[in-house]
UniProtKB/TrEMBL annotation:
Functional note: Could be a nuclease involved in processing of the 5'-end of pre-16S rRNA.
Keyword Transmembrane helix recorded: no
Lineage of source species: Bacteria, Pseudomonadati, Pseudomonadota, Alphaproteobacteria, Sphingomonadales
Gene3D superfamilies, A to Z: YqgF/RNase H-like domain
SUPFAM superfamilies linked to this entry: Ribonuclease H-like
Name under which the protein is recorded: Putative pre-16S rRNA nuclease
Entry keyword set: Cytoplasm, Hydrolase, Nuclease, Ribosome biogenesis
Gene that encodes it: ruvX
Protein family membership: Belongs to the YqgF HJR family.
InterPro entries to which the protein is assigned, alphabetical: RNaseH-like_sf, YqgF, YqgF/RNaseH-like_dom, YqgF/RNaseH-like_dom_sf
Length: 162
């Protein structure tokens, strides 16, 4: 945890303490084949769906994310944590925790792990409400799920925690 920037936590209060001045955040929905990307404004008011990155080796993924971090002046990362419906954590959650640790170190940014249990269904419902076609939804679901994850986190951060 060099200078506090490499913190990886699932506690919004601890995460907020590391970023007392706010700053734009990057939200990620980690899939086995893709990474959904979203960003938010520096004041933590709204999350916006971005692109979807095809998963590859970590170094290639990190390179694509590093470019977004530089372009958007990102100060921290929020990664969806895929918990089971009963709140327990399985292999996918452990893989997300490992990815978060590696990413925090590689990007030298704090990472918040955020419960993503309902993110995909919530994103899909919103896209259906926008009358988006099934094909377009399939193409954009990961980035919209990342926006749902990020919005939940920034709502908690802006509201003072959980």
């Amino acid at each position: 945890m060099d200078g506090g920037t490499r913190i990886v936590t699932d506690n919004a209060l601890a995460y907020g303490d590391v970023l007392p001045d706010g700053g734009a955040l990057l939200g990620l929905d980690l899939g086995t084949k893709t990474i959904g990307v979203a960003t938010c404004d520096a004041g933590w008011r709204y999350a916006t769906a971005g692109k979807t990155i095809a998963r590859s080796k970590f170094t290639k993924d990190c390179g694509a994310l590093r470019a977004i971090v530089a372009e958007r002046s990102i100060k921290g990362v929020v990664i969806g944590l895929p918990r089971n419906m009963d709140g327990s954590e399985g292999p996918r959650a452990q893989a997300s925790r490992a990815y978060a640790r590696n990413l925090a170190q590689s990007l030298d940014l704090p990472v918040l792990l955020w419960d993503e249990r309902w993110s995909t269904s919530s994103a899909e419902s919103a896209m259906i409400g926008q009358d988006m076609s099934r094909a377009k939804r399939a193409d954009k679901i990961d980035s919209h799920a990342a926006a749902v994850i990020l919005q939940g986190a920034i709502d908690a951060l802006a509201g003072g925690g959980l």
